[in-house]
User: Fold this.
Amino acid sequence: MLAFRTLVGLFLSTCLTLACTAGAQAQTPPGALGRLPFLWGVTLAGYQNDGAHPAMDWHAWENEVAKPRGYEASGRGADFRGHMEADLDRAKSIGLNAFRTSIEWSRIEPEEGKVDAQEVAYVHRLLRGIRQRGMAPVITIHHFATPRWFTADRGDGLIGWESPRSVALFRRWATFVAKEFGAEIDWYLTFNEPSNVILGGYATGFIPPHRLGPVAFARATANVLASHEAAYDAIHAADPVARVSVPDYNCQLPVAGGLDWLPGMWFARQLPTVRTWDGRERPRTMDFAAVHYYGLNHTFADFPVTPWHWEGNPGHLVKVLKAYHEAFGLPILIAENGFATREGAAREDGWTRESYMVAHIQAIQQAMAAGVPVIGYMYWTLTDNYEWGSYRPRFGLFEVDVRSGDYTRRPTPAVDVFREIIQAGGVTPALARRFPPPARSTARR
Assistant:
């Protein structure tokens, strides 16, 4: 999750077409994913929960860019590493059967070509812990953070994703992950919000590597698209039964008539396509669609992060899900949906985390009743964590007071509500009556 919701999205829409490619025709049988249980999960990210690593580009960002601007350092994040077993127990206690996190490239390969064996062992222990608790690992292989050596200038002036070399490097990384950890992973996500990787890093300069300009932006766009395709093929070559996708951010903006922000569809529509059994064309390199949804954004501001102003908008989520289904005809995973407070304070708009969760899962049920094949819901996030420059936004089902150095986890009321939803297989009428949306938001349901 990251807030780069600006008008340069229009710039993205235009520039993405520069990288558009056409694919070969193929046939895909109905029900390609088979009969699967609904995935109830939470989402984490390595950098946000573990803090920065010296080999990570965001480590330099914290000291060279963020610190002078007054942003907080990540420190140990929410100290997930120090609380891993207990946090996995907390997730299990909710009744989850899925757990999304990231494998951090910069920790595994801090120097190009050199693998940290201790970090590999840690990831195996994490994946084993997830599976032993009856949860399916859903693994992101690039969640914004990148090795510093990857973004180093090699003398040609092309930084990170600007360089065509980035495609081969990302293919190699995806191959390593699938071969080393594939026996423990069924669900993969290549990039977390690729539109923000491109926009933030190469159009606005708000995140590493702080590039700004149309040429860098166009190059990065083409190479991130090609890198997703390369990673998809590499993962399937190593693990033919893997399920792979790429999630992106979606919201509504308060402009005349309401502007649908669907960069995930923009990105997916640039990928090579295949023709499915029902005559549709879908991206060849997506086994399912993955959606991030948070609601109504009231401003175009990027930093400081102010997600406590993102208002719940469950009615728009129904429209988003229907749009994805109509466009791609693929099963859909809600890979992120979350609610933030400012330092735990009550929200001015009247939403609570419990009412937000109930209303948005109700929206998913409404979409499913209309024929949209939603296969899972993942809440952002299990514990409060580092939100890209600040600890003020609190998304966690469990509170963590990071600044004081007290990493004690304290459950919010949403823990019991989520557990009740999962046990019932969805939102019941009684639960909906107990946690109605605020009156000012009912018109947007």
